[in-house]
Design goal:
Elements: H1 2-14, H2 17-33, H3 37-54, H4 57-73, H5 77-95, H6 102-110, H7 114-125, H8 129-138, H9 142-150, H10 155-158, H11 161-185, H12 192-219, H13 235-240, E1 247-254, E2 259-266, E3 274-281, H14 285-300, H15 307-317, H16 322-325, E4 330-334, E5 360-363, H17 367-380, E6 394-400, H18 403-409, H19 423-431, E7 441-446, H20 451-457, E8 463-467, E9 470-471, E10 481-483, E11 496-498, H21 499-503, E12 511-515, E13 522-525, E14 529-532, H22 533-540, E15 544-548, H23 554-569, H24 577-589, E16 603-607
Parallel strand pairs: 1-4, 4-5, 6-7, 6-8, 8-12, 12-15
Antiparallel strand pairs: 1-2, 2-3, 9-10, 10-11, 13-14, 15-16
Length: about 600
């Protein structure tokens, strides 16, 4: 606090209103942490007034949110509510002004979600469960909801010839450096200095390409979507997401000092079409993260000592709603924060039994996004996986010929340590021929499973399946990729299908299966969930994806995937997609070799599992 006041004096001496406003915020937060909320309100209000006077709208939401937290500490609910409404209104206004594509909008919003979460806590304290749920929804999946409600903009059609040439040059530079890096790493003794130089060049090329993409949206105002216009989720829309009394919607909100679970089911009382109940989960965010990370690690490493953790996490997260979930066979889970890393199907409601034995489970970024997916399916007449009509159905890629350069490039990671051939993956995709009409399906293996072929053909098919190696980029998940065969001599593709490239595709697929390692992982982004390959598939137009949470084993994966497609397409089965994955998991568990959750719980269904 002493140093913040010294900083304030320097900022006032300089006459810099922005720095003065920031100093007020720092001082307000210090007073709040010291248990002096009245002084915190005073300095937060000073900051808000100065930011408005100085025309610094991006700081107003922070000031109003801090003021609201101080009012709540004083027990002043109504002034807190007014401050939060102003903060949220400001965030919504700024969302509409963000220049750039989906990634830029996501990065903006993840810095602005706090007022929504504080409003959730305020409304829960008032006993308004449904109102709290609507604000939890407004803090999630907003970019995906924009895409669903307004459609994707084809930026290529808006670009001038000069811009198109620049785009080709920049993307070509990224691929060229990737190929140079592949060649260097394939040497018997790679040059560390050369690799360091290539890594720096690749980082610079990626930044230049991303900057160019952002600049296009600023240069072409006609590309700007209507943002922040989506209305709050209504009770009628919630009812539409509950096809029967056996379905339950579960939404989590993870707060710093406590978390919350909302459970939505068909109404049990006369005249109540839908029932919304909230449950307070008494766990700090850091403790929850530690528990989930421990569970994930134990399962991913095939550790046999996971039962106590699986039981304790069930009791913590779902135990409070045990009675409301009784008899529900389909659970739609909206995770928050670290819960995206948790395979709920592996939790244990009782000793020796798994959640998947009682419920089919799928995950979605928000209930509003799920509703938008349902509307899109009706609008576009999307089919079920069993087929019908004349549209091409299945496009599958398996066991691509990677080439020595690619193997050396990523030889230390995923699916098997040496990144060798994947004969099980090849058998996996060939087995799918049994379930789909051959005349409307294409299956490519080995050298035929090329990246340029995938990019050119994926938009024509309704079911996409990739059985290959997956590589997670921990530093920037939008550069995570699945490996395909490299381009023919003279081609420009490097055989690495990155998440950022997937995001630019125009998919019509009802479901995409990435039968590869760690494709469900990425960066946890407040407001959108897990940013990575799965998020990219949503943006590209696919409402449902099957992805993996850890490094998977080939033979069990092949059995699980073949079983999934068999169940999905069985004549007259009428199974929902999540139920087809559950049935495949239960079938695999009957083999004692594959009883451990490592073999079946790593694959999760995200999006629309109905």
């Amino acid at each position: 606090l002493e140093y913040f006041h010294k900083g304030l004096a320097l900022a006032e001496e300089m006459g810099n209103k922005g720095l003065v406003a920031n100093a007020y915020l720092d001082i307000a937060e210090a007073h709040l942490r010291l248990g002096e909320p009245r002084k915190a309100v005073e300095f937060a209000e000073r900051s808000a007034a100065l930011t408005q006077q100085a025309g610094l709208p991006d700081q107003i939401a922070y000031a109003r949110t801090l003021s609201a937290k101080a009012h709540l500490a004083l027990g002043e609910s109504e002034p807190a509510r007014r401050s939060l409404l102003e903060a949220i209104s400001n965030v919504e206004r700024l969302r509409a002004q963000v220049a750039g594509a989906e990634s830029e909008r996501q990065r903006f919003f993840e810095r602005q979600v706090e007022p929504y979460y504080v409003m959730v806590e305020l409304l829960l304290a008032r006993g308004d469960d449904f109102g709290a749920l609507t604000y939890a929804e407004r803090a999630k999946g907003r970019v995906l909801l924009d895409v669903l409600s307004s459609g994707r903009v084809d930026i290529n059609k808006a670009m001038t010839a000069q811009e198109q040439a620049r785009e080709r040059a920049l993307s070509g530079e990224v691929n060229a450096i990737n190929l140079q890096s592949l060649r260097e790493k394939s040497q018997s003794q790679p040059d560390p200095a050369r690799l360091k130089e290539l890594d720096a060049r690749l980082h610079k090329a990626r930044l230049e390409y991303e900057s160019f993409q952002t600049g296009l949206y600023a240069a072409h105002p006609e590309l700007r979507l209507r943002r922040g216009q989506s209305p709050s989720l209504t009770q009628r829309e919630l009812v539409a997401l509950l096809p029967d009394a056996k379905t339950a919607l579960l939404e989590f909100v993870v707060g710093e000092n406590a978390s919350y679970l909302f459970v939505v089911t068909r109404g049990a009382r006369a005249g109540a079409a839908v029932e919304v109940k909230s449950y307070r989960l008494n766990v700090k965010a850091k403790d929850l993260a530690a528990g989930v990370e421990d569970m994930h690690k134990r399962l991913a490493e095939r550790n046999l000592d996971f039962g106590v953790r699986a039981r304790s996490l069930y009791d913590l997260l779902l135990g409070p709603a045990r009675e409301q979930l009784r008899g529900r066979t389909l659970l739609c889970v909206v995770p928050d924060g670290v819960l995206w890393e948790l395979p709920f199907q592996a939790l244990q409601p009782r000793d020796g039994a798994y959640l998947v034995e009682d419920h089919a489970v799928f995950y979605t970024p928000s209930l509003s996004v799920l509703h938008g997916m349902e509307k899109l399916a009706v609008r576009e007449g999307r089919f079920n996986a069993g087929g019908g009509g004349r549209a091409p159905v299945l496009l599958a890629f398996g066991n691509p010929s990677l080439g020595q350069r690619t193997v050396e490039f990523v030889k230390s990671v995923y699916r098997d340590e040496k990144l060798g051939s994947l004969p099980e993956a090849e058998r996996e995709v060939k087995a799918l021929e049994e379930f789909y009409t051959p005349s409307r399906s294409r299956i490519y293996v080995r050298e035929e499973a090329r990246e340029e072929r995938a990019k050119s053909e994926v938009g024509d098919y309704r079911v996409l399946h990739f059985a290959t190696h997956g590589v997670l980029d921990d530093r920037n998940p939008m550069y995570s990729h699945v490996l395909l065969s490299q381009a023919e001599p003279g081609g420009g593709e490097d055989g690495l299908l990155h998440a950022w490239e997937v995001m630019k595709l125009d998919l019509k697929a009802d479901i995409v299966v990435l039968s590869a390692c760690q494709t469900a992982r990425g960066k946890l982004g407040a407001g959108e969930g897990l940013i990575g390959m799965g998020w990219a598939l949503f943006v590209a137009g696919s409402p449902t994806a099957v992805l993996s949470l850890w490094k998977v084993e080939s033979s069990s994966t092949a059995e699980l995937m073949v079983g999934f497609h068999r169940n999905l397409t069985a004549p007259g089965a009428g199974r929902r997609k999540a139920e087809a994955l559950r049935a495949a998991s239960l079938e695999l568990m009957k083999d004692r070799r594959f009883r451990h959750p490592f073999y079946w719980a790593g694959f999760v269904m995200t999006g629309n599992g109905m």
